[in-house]
Amino acid sequence: MNPLRVALCGNPNVGKSTVFNALTGMRQHTGNWAGKTVESARGQVRGEQQDWTLVDLPGAYSLLDGSPEEVVASDYLNFMELDAAVVVCDATCLERSLNLALQVSEACPRAVLCVNLMDEAVKRGIQIDIPMLETLLCMPVVGVTAKKKQGLKELKRRVLQAVTAPDALCESAVRLCYPQVVERAAAALCPALLAAFPRIHGERSARFAALRLLVGGERFLRRLLEEARPEGYAALREGFAQQRAALEAEGYVNERLAAELITEGYRVAGRLCEAAVKKPEQSSAELRQLRVDRVLSSKRVGIPLMLGLLALVFYITISGANIPSAWLSAKLMGLEPMLRDLLASARAPAWLIGLLVDGVYRVVAWVVSVMLPPMAIFFPLFTLLEDFGFLPRVAFNLDCCFQHCCACGKQALCMMQGFGCNAVGVMGCRIIQSPRERLIAILTNALVPCNGRFPTLIALISMFFVFSSGAIAPILCALALVGLIVLSVLMTFASSKLLSKTVLKGIPSSFSLELPPFRRPKIAQVLVRSVLDRTLFVLGRAVAVAAPAGLCLWVLANVTVNGTPLIRLMADFLNPFGRLLGMDGVIVLAFILGFPANEIVLPIAIMVYLSQGALIEPQGFDALRALLVSNGWTVWTAASMMLFCLFHWPCSTTVLTIYKETKSARWTLLSMLLPTAIGCVACALLTLVSRLF
Amino acid sequence: MQRFAYLDGKDGGGLPSLVTYDKVVRFMMEQTLALSALGGGQTAVITSVHGKGAMGARLRDLGFTEQSTVTCLYASAFGDPRAYRVKDTVIALRRADACCIGCHCTGGAR
User: Which of A29, A68, A322, A570 lies 20 to 30 Å (CA to CA) from residue A435?
Assistant: First the structure.
């Protein structure tokens, strides 16, 4: 038996991905802000009688017309062959969710309403009469708390019921009544649409498609014609022109028509809520939330509080990473002689031992011991902030600055995703509607340091800038790191402004951002899950990227041209350029070889220095510092490297993502050139200053 | 209730000064103003949404439809986007966009 095809849709941030995870047992990323999921995910659900293929669609406020993601969701529901659609609603703001649910039930008749976050509603004293809602809507309604996996069995049962229900029953679900002129125009378009798209689910869906066509206009028609059967072309085009003219004659121009349709949806949703939902005037939870929000957004405390929280996260990361880092380093270095002996006893030739142990193993060991612990600690902490609902507040506070740069405040959300991974941040830019502002956000995303660059920054700060030891060192280090973040955010503002005044000219478009209620994150689960996930991810990358890099390094260090190792030649070649930027050839070489992943830059530099004769085995930051100083490093070198680490070309994964998102080689090239140029200028200026001392 | 009777003119006598006062209050309350003019804590009922192009539809999608009640909650750190509660959700809007929404104030402390 073929699996059932079921789509999951709903407003942004109502917990679609949580429902998806609960049903499929998968682990899609979730977060407490609108626009976390931008790509549709697919998963298998085990049903009692039949399995399903479940598709998690990006969140939408409206199916009529809107952002590219909303259009994707809408097209999927309207034109794909679906057995059922599950509309996820937020029990705490049912009215708005119902507005979308009504649209979904028109687009895809076999819809099941899944009222999520029932526990939150109970906490706020909201009573929802589910049977009443079901009677009024004439479609299945289920109350669910996805986070606690409550009500999922019932949901599965009702979906199966919806799939097997007779067509007539599905068509009889509550129907929005639009003005007669609009209804007539939509009805007139239906036959043409049904002829051009045989996959449409019936008269009800066809009517909705007709409404979308009337609202969407030429743009929507062009897209429709690309997909339509060729023999339906003429009828569709002609019908559209006719009905459009008829509507315009009655005064329903574009905007008024859309307004009419949405208002009708909300009118019905409002009535349904009046009948089925009882809520108190203002609950204590709401008041508490309001008080917290007032503090977070206040003039004096807001921004310092945000920076303080960031510093706290860094402090925990730095002080927490020291112990596992030292332990891993000791263990892995201790394993090296054993590995060497093992290979020797297997009669491996000397070059192979060198290649595997000095090349591959050492770089992997470096990445795992120095880079992994901070990454594995920072990521879950940030996830906690995300789950709590902190990120939209930051975007809310920073929007004013972005407005001055003619950009969108949601760019702040992408930047914060960039702290985790720039590739994810670039993909997250899809939440920005205006194409111009989206491009600005994509091009400037690599200016904020990602998780892979934090360990490098932390190591450099603690080696060269924080001289005190003991309890205060991690605090100073965290503060310095916050300073660097502030620098990178300021640079983002500056380059956004530069871009919007030069290649991406334009005025700021509209901005609307939902501030979700704070939700208590499931701390234990997040910690375990994302520490494990992050560790596995970094380990996987270490094998995939660091191991080949180590191999490559060993070959470069051992292949000689006229008695000089190749690596020496390359470093010498890059040396003048490096000196100009306050660094040396080796560091520049490390940045170039580190293109596949930023976390291997520092390990590569250290390996190169080590391969040049210094045969110490550095353990801990003190020995490492000695090694670097013996290679001519000063405080200025470290500062330059930190600046260049902040501002240089994005890693290969990010570049690929940028290319996928912009579909343009020119923008991708610019996204690499922009941070590099900033980095070069900043480093050169710093070097000039350093010469003055 | 008694006071509204004067306003409706059902009672010919009554106190002229009170009538004028009530009229003034009602007049002030029913003045249409832009949502952006609302102060923190003030509540209003939306009377018109006239955003250009996609913005009007977007605002309506978010719940800013005619007849719905909206409360201005607080401003962000730099003052510009402000948070509004509408249909049980909190939505931040820039001043430029909130200007597109007309409403009349129904009360609440400034």
Answer: A29
A339 phi and psi angles, rounded to 5 deg: -65, -40
Average pLDDT, chain A: 87
Give CA separation, A74 vs A10, A59, A100, in Å. 11, 10, 11
Instruction: Give A568-572's long-range contacts (Cβ < 8 A, gap of 24+).
Output: A568/A612, A571/A608
Task: Say yes or no for a CB contact (<8 Å) between B55 and A290.
Answer: no
The predicted model scores a pTM of 0.87
Angle at B8 between CA B6 and CA B11, to 5 degrees: 45
Q: How many CB atoms lie within 10 A of CB A527?
A: 16
- To the nearest whole Å, the CA of B9 is away from the closest chain A CA by 34
Alpha carbon distance A557, B56 (integer Å): 64
Residues A241 and A268 sit within 8 Å (Cβ to Cβ): no
Tell me if chain A has a CB within 8 Å of the CB of B39: no
Is the sign of the CA dihedral A386, A388, A392, A394 positive or negative?
negative
What are the backbone angles phi and psi of residue A473, rounded to the nearest 5°?
A: -55, -50
DSSP-derived pairing of the beta strands A41-45 and A111-116 = unpaired
CA dihedral sign of residues B14, B17, B19, B22: negative
B83 CB within 8 Å of a chain A CB: yes
φ/ψ region of A517 (left if φ > 0, alpha if ψ in -120 to 50, else beta) reads beta
Q: Name the nearest CA neighbour of A671 among A423, A405, A401.
A: A423
Question: Which tokens sit at A472?
Answer: 């205060």
pLDDT in tens, A163-194: 888 877 777 778 888 888 889 888 988 888 88
Q: Cβ–Cβ of A511/B51 closer than 8 Å?
A: no
- Determine the 3-state secondary structure of A113 from DSSP: strand
Closest-approach residue (CA) in chain B for A302: B77
What ipTM was estimated for this complex? 0.86
- Mind listing the pLDDT tens digit for each residue in A14-54? 888 889 989 888 777 777 777 677 677 888 888 777 888 89
